[in-house]
């Protein structure tokens, strides 16, 4: 623990040594090491893939006695779509909630290890989770708009953050970006609960991007939607990735393959088995278990 | 594949499904419900018969009113129900609004007669308005200084309404000091804006003050509401303008018609203005206009009925519950006895309860639901507290009376049987109920909404203020109003804290000794004269039940109002 803290304090930027050291006992860790070197390599040479904004190191999460995440080491690159896939109950949502510290709201949850956002460990004592969540927006699995008007839903984040100049304009921009504006522009005063499920989910996305966060976390945002609404949301995610870092949990392999740049595969027990470019994961994974999972031999 | 013979009887009598037990259970439940409802209804009818004594009227009187009022209204009701439901709704509102308006008018009239002079009211409202203005102005000028804002929110009303130190509580401080053997008088003080206004050598007339502080604000609010609804500035201005013209006309013409100017202004504000706005809206929309016939026919029917019975000399019932009963004090003779002072006492007691129990109870509920830890040692402690709040809700009311007696009268030395002591003792009694129902309401706000709010980077306070409370308020209010209904009928605590058995004068301040409706009813129940025990008592019970009914109806209206708007 102390050694880990020391390394992280000394070098938050150069991660390869820390990660290699941390993951070496893990038998499935080899691709990870390569991976992190790979990311940094591309970063230095081409500059097209962003530098990592979110990095977890030896992240363990427990709910009471049960362990939900095991030694997760992961570096999420900036302004790309990173997908998380894996069987139900393997800890994908848990990992997502670690990033913006929504786990703080669950009494039973205990987080060990480090998670860096822009070089700062978010579990340090001097980090205010409220400030963190203002930079990292979240869209939940089930659409959860407030029982307020459409306008008030989108304006909510701006109001609580005191950014009330040009409110109308910002609301309109957010709704346009979420591809919802044309459907609701004449009924902004209507209750958000009167929208359809797909519209509600896009409203939640508009609500999350209205405050212009750095990262958007999405937990199965399309799981309750029909194919048309789903494809709208997928288009939207690809567009968002031009400006935001998007982390998305999904159960839909095709979706992950279609929209993500990187894919992380978690398997039962909360271990991160493989993390790599999406193409590589789906065409030629290193781990046999990942291949089995993707091809549906094992779930 | 199909090896079984097709069975023909699978859907009918011979099927394996057995509904017998289910049907029997359903029938039993229905019978029990009906039994409960019918017995309560019979009891109420029985009491109402004693209170109104309809059979003491001449048959002619009954027949006349049946013909002029009951039959036409019943016919209209059937017509609405069968053929014209929107009109039924309009009839319901146009009959209900004046009743509520008259109740409010009566309430304010009593307020001005018993508690405050118009000047005191004026000074209080102006001071509150100035305090509100200060708070808003500070919020605009220095929106970032949160602590300062809290201080202003707290100090501004104290400075404008009470002054420093607040005299209202001086005697309490002095008494406490005296108990410690100190002579501690607060001789120097900053007087409040309210007191300054009352010291002015020149004050406007009563009607001008009422116009400024009651008629215009209410008319303004109604105007704003209408403007919002119809998106028209002109209509808002029209509402305010017309109301003002009516008010001034009434002030000039009122004395000629024998209506006091104050009463006239109250009537305008609470009865005529809302009714006028509603009726105008109905006529403009043109939907359910026929509903307006209902109140018109009711009024006409009563008028015609009274002329006919007057001309033919039919005598009405010798009802115990009449205008005299509601407006006079109790007396040695049953015929003159009334419930007025006890009613004022009850209402003032409710005011004390609302001002103390509501904030304390809702605050506690918010803490327990939103802030209190649920794990660790503190979590165990909180669970213990929650269990005991449940237990407190079941403690007999006599015990709360005893608590009130010990705490407020023996220890704090407050006047025995005063409104404030009664209010606090009964308030303690319903506190656990308020907490539990408020907790229930807060808990019913879905967790996904809290998650959404926290996920947006809202603080806990912002989440509670903007997401949880707006959703929970209807439930909190319904629970509280039902608890208040319980409070208004409690008798045992009033006996323990020594509320007056019967009083001739209504209380003029919260520290006056008073009687309350249930206490007065209890006194009547032990009078020797049977007229008291049968007639006056029944009239008192019906009055109490009517007040309760109004409160519960308010609760239901509030709940329905907020439920599906979102
Ligand atoms: N609030 C909680 N309290 C206790 N245990 C929890 C809680 N939330 C999750 N868990 C446990 O943690 C493990 C991981 O859960 P998590 O919700 O992260 O899975 P997931 O990968 O998102 O699954 P799914 O795909 O079904 O959403 C599960 O075994 C679950 O039982
Ligand atoms: Mg999940």
UniProtKB/TrEMBL annotation, chain A:
Q: Does the keyword S-adenosyl-L-methionine apply?
A: no
What protein name does the entry list? Phosphate ABC transporter ATP-binding protein
GO MF annotations in UniProt: ATP binding; ATP hydrolysis activity; phosphate transmembrane transporter activity
Q: Which GO terms describe its biological process?
A: phosphate ion transmembrane transport
Q: Which organism is it from?
A: Haloarcula mannanilytica
Give the residue spans that cross the bilayer.
Answer: none
Instruction: Note the InterPro entries from the entry.
Output: AAA+_ATPase, ABC_transporter-like_ATP-bd, ABC_transporter-like_CS, P-loop_NTPase, PstB-like
**Region (Disordered) residue spans:** 1-52
- Stored PROSITE patterns: ABC_TRANSPORTER_1 (PS00211), ABC_TRANSPORTER_2 (PS50893)
Instruction: Output compositional bias ranges, type Low complexity.
Output: 1-24, 40-50
Automatic annotation (TrEMBL), chain B:
GO BP, one example?
A: phosphate ion transmembrane transport
UniProt KW keywords: Cell membrane, Membrane, Transmembrane, Transmembrane helix, Transport
**CDD domains with a match to the protein in the record:** TM_PBP2
Q: Which GO terms describe its molecular function?
A: phosphate transmembrane transporter activity
Membrane protein topology class: Multi-pass membrane protein
Q: Determine if Membrane is one of this entry's keywords.
A: yes
> Has keyword Zinc?
no
**Residue ranges occupied by any ABC transmembrane type-1 domain in the UniProt entry:** 343-555
Localization, UniProt: Cell membrane
Q: Which residues cross the membrane?
A: 29-48, 60-81, 90-113, 119-139, 146-164, 207-225, 237-257, 263-280, 292-315, 347-368, 389-412, 418-438, 531-558
Pfam families named in the record:
BPD_transp_1
Q: Which family does it belong to?
A: Belongs to the binding-protein-dependent transport system permease family. CysTW subfamily.
PANTHER family in UniProt: PHOSPHATE TRANSPORT SYSTEM PERMEASE PROTEIN PSTA (PTHR43470:SF5), PHOSPHATE TRANSPORT SYSTEM PERMEASE PROTEIN PSTA-RELATED (PTHR43470)
User: Can you say what this protein is called?
Assistant: Phosphate transport system permease protein PstA
Native species of this protein? Haloarcula mannanilytica
């Amino acid at each position: 623990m102390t050694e880990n803290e020391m390394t992280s304090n000394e070098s938050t930027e150069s991660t390869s040594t820390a990660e290699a050291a941390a993951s070496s006992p893990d038998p499935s860790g080899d691709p990870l090491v390569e991976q992190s070197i790979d990311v940094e390599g591309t970063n230095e040479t081409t500059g097209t893939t962003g530098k990592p904004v979110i990095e977890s190191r030896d992240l363990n999460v427990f709910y009471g006695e049960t362990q939900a995440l095991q030694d997760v080491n992961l570096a999420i690159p900036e302004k790309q779509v990173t997908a998380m896939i894996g069987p139900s109950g393997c800890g994908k949502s848990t990992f997502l909630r670690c990033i913006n510290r929504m786990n703080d709201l669950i009494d039973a949850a205990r987080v060990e290890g480090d998670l860096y956002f822009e070089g700062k460990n978010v579990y340090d004592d001097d980090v205010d989770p409220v400030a963190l969540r203002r930079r990292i927006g979240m869209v939940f699995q089930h659409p959860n708009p407030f029982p307020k008007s459409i306008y008030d839903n989108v304006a909510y984040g701006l109001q609580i953050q005191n950014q009330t100049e040009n409110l109308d304009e910002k609301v309109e921009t957010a709704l346009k970006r979420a591809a919802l504006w044309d459907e609701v522009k004449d009924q902004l005063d209507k209750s958000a609960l009167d929208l359809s499920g797909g519209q509600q989910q896009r409203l939640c996305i508009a609500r999350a991007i209205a405050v212009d966060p750095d990262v958007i976390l999405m937990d199965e945002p399309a799981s309750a939607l029909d194919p048309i609404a789903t494809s709208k949301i997928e288009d939207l995610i690809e567009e968002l990735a031009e400006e935001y870092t998007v982390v998305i949990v999904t159960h839909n392999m095709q979706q992950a393959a279609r929209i993500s740049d990187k894919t992380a595969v978690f398997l039962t027990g909360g271990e991160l088995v493989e993390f790599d470019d999406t193409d590589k994961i789906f065409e030629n994974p290193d781990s046999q278990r990942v291949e089995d999972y993707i091809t549906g031999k094992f779930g | 594949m199909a090896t079984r013979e097709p069975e023909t009887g699978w859907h009918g009598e011979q099927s394996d499904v057995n509904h017998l037990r289910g049907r029997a259970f359903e029938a039993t439940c229905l019978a029990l419900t009906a039994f409960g409802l019918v017995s309560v209804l019979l009891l109420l009818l029985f009491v109402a018969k004693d209170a109104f004594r309809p059979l003491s009227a001449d048959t002619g009187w009954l027949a006349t009113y049946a013909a002029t009022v009951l039959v036409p209204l019943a016919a209209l009701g059937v017509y609405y129900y069968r053929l014209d439901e929107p009109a039924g709704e309009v009839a319901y509102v146009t009959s209900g609004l004046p009743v509520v308006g008259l109740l409010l008018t009566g309430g304010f009239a009593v307020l001005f007669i018993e508690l405050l002079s118009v000047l005191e009211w004026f000074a209080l409202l102006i001071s509150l308005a100035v305090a509100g203005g200060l708070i808003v102005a500070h919020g605009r000028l220095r929106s970032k200084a949160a602590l300062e804002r809290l201080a202003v929110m707290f100090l501004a009303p104290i400075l404008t309404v009470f002054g420093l130190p607040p005299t209202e509580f001086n005697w309490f401080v002095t008494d406490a000091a005296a108990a410690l053997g100190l002579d501690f008088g607060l001789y120097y003080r900053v007087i409040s804006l309210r007191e300054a206004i009352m010291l002015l050598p020149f004050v406007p007339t009563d009607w001008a003050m009422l116009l400024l502080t009651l008629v215009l604000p209410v008319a303004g609010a109604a105007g704003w509401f209408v403007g919002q609804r119809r998106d028209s500035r002109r209509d808002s201005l029209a509402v305010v303008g017309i109301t003002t013209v009516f008010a001034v006309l009434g002030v000039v013409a009122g004395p000629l018609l024998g209506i006091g100017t104050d009463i006239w202004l109250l009537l305008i504000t609470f009865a005529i203005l809302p009714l006028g706005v509603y009726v105008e809206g109905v006529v403009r929309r043109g939907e359910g206009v026929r509903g307006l016939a209902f109140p018109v026919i009711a009024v006409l029917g009563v008028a015609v009925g009274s002329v006919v019975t007057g001309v033919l000399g039919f005598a009405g019932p010798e009802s115990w519950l009449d205008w005299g009963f509601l407006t006079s004090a109790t007396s040695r003779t049953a015929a003159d006895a009334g419930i007025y002072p006890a009613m004022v006492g009850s209402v003032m007691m409710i005011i004390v309860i609302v001002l103390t129990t509501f904030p304390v109870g809702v605050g506690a509920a918010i803490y327990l639901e939103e802030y209190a830890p649920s794990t660790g040692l503190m979590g165990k402690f909180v669970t213990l507290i929650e269990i005991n709040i449940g237990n407190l809700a079941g403690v007999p009311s006599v015990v709360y009376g005893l608590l009130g007696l010990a705490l407020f009268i023996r220890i704090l030395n407050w006047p025995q049987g005063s409104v404030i002591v009664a209010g606090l003792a009964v308030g303690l009694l319903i506190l656990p109920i308020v907490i539990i129902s408020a907790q229930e309401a807060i808990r019913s706000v879905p967790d996904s909404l809290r998650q959404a709010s926290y996920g947006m980077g809202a603080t806990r306070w912002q989440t509670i203020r903007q997401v949880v409370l707006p959703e929970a308020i209807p439930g909190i209010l319904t629970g509280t109003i039902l608890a208040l209904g319980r409070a208004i009928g409690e008798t045992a605590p009033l006996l323990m804290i020594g509320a007056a058995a019967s009083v001739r004068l209504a209380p003029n301040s919260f520290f006056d000794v008073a009687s309350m409706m249930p206490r007065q009813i209890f006194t009547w129940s032990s009078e020797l004269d049977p007229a008291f025990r049968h007639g006056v008592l029944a009239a008192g019970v019906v009055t109490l039940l009517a007040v309760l009914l109004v409160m519960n109806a308010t609760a239901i209206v509030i709940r329905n109002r907020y439920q599906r708007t979102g």
